[in-house]
Design goal:
Helix content is about 35%, strand content about 25%. It is α/β, with parallel strands linked by helices and about 400 residues long. Strands 1, 2, 8, 9, 10, 11, 17 and 18 form an 8-stranded mixed β-sheet that branches. It has a 7-stranded mixed β-sheet with strand order 6-5-13-14-15-12-16, with helices on both faces. It is globular and about 90 Å long. The structure holds flavin-adenine dinucleotide. The site of flavin-adenine dinucleotide has 38 residues, from helix 1, strand 12, strand 16 and helix 6.
Length: about 400
Amino acid sequence: MMHYDAIIVGAGPAGSTAARALAQGGARVCLVDKARFPRSKPCGGALSPRTLRHLPPGVDSVVRARVRRAVFTFRSGKPFEVVSRDPMGYMVCREEFDAWLKAHAEQAGASVREGAAVRAIEETKTGFAVRVSGGAISSDTIVGADGVNSRVAAQLLPARPRARYLALEFEVPQNGHDLGETVIVDVGAYPGGYAWGFPKGDRVNVGAMVEYARGRQLRRTLDAFVAGQPSLPAIPSLGCRAAAVAAAQSAPVPCARPGVLLVGDAAHLTDPFLGEGIYSAVRSGALAARALLQGKHRIETAVHYAGLVESQLWPDLVAASRVASLFHRMPRWWHHLMSLMPGSLSEVVGVLSGDQTYAGLLREIVERLEAGAGRWVRRRLGVRPDGTAAARRG
Ligand SMILES: Cc1cc2nc3c(=O)[nH]c(=O)nc-3n(C[C@H](O)[C@H](O)[C@H](O)COP(=O)(O)OP(=O)(O)OC[C@H]3O[C@@H](n4cnc5c(N)ncnc54)[C@H](O)[C@@H]3O)c2cc1C
């Protein structure tokens, strides 16, 4: 049986990033995926600018569109827009992006097995024996990068929270509906989420995300969104791709134990406000590799990795969860407020570019609300900012 330092289950962004970094660090690593690449994956394929900083060079070869304009609507009405000189996002098709990342892992020296579904994982005295279609392999460590329905997590770190959202998307030919550099984001009809139209060169990605429990109405809601947006192409009645979104709740989810590290969706690291998961997938993949390369034994590695994820990713995910709760309680109100001050969205753009954090954004929102509420109360009571009473007329 072939033995490795680490077996990584899943060659999505999290697994391929971990495999690349481990191989570059000199580890013997095997990256296994049940799919053969290129393979598609339900996803909007939007990369934030901050994600690009953590990718290998040359991502331009798989970027299909750069986003410089965002149009926001409320139930397909009341549009307002935000324009930016620098791209707010980079659009990829997942079959192209994931194949590109996996190729980088291979070039770095990772051994890759495609079409190799993990069928069974057995713990041995020193590590793991893994049965994949086509044979068995063993390792000291197993990295669960197998997505939202992670088999590795279910077996080795069970008692996971349920997925927070359900999302549905179509990637269709643009058919004369070229969105160019524009994304469309609609709110109001999607409890906990939103609907989008993303440009992809000769394709358009159309989708919506809602709280998991509201998933049954999702297809109908998406049809209504597309019908209300003349700039979007029609979507077929069949062929949508739906998947759960492993968005963070308000408390960290365990992601490590001796010999087992979970990364990306398997560790529930998707941003609960925008549903952005590729950033955390790539970051956690790199952090897992760092902990493995530096760790002297399995306990130390697990503690180190859990600490890195908790300190570098969770504070912002928890803040994003609060922002999501604030927004989704009153989407009409927020949409109206932002339409009056579209500049305030630069803070959200700042989070995507990495210049701002969700924690900073939350602080900003609270301070502005406090200031606004303070002004309102003072006006009602006739009190000046220094606390003195203003003379009342009449
Ligand atoms: C509809 C939708 C839209 C989204 N839009 C965006 C977006 O625009 N931007 C963004 O950043 N995020 C988006 N996300 C989230 C994003 O898709 C995920 O967060 C991201 O793909 C997580 O990467 P990952 O590597 O952890 O897992 P995945 O990308 O899911 O990769 C997991 C891999 O594991 C393999 N695998 C699974 N089980 C096994 C097994 N038993 N044996 C072997 N291999 C296995 C799978 O084949 C797959 O290749 C969206 C999600 C959904 C559902």
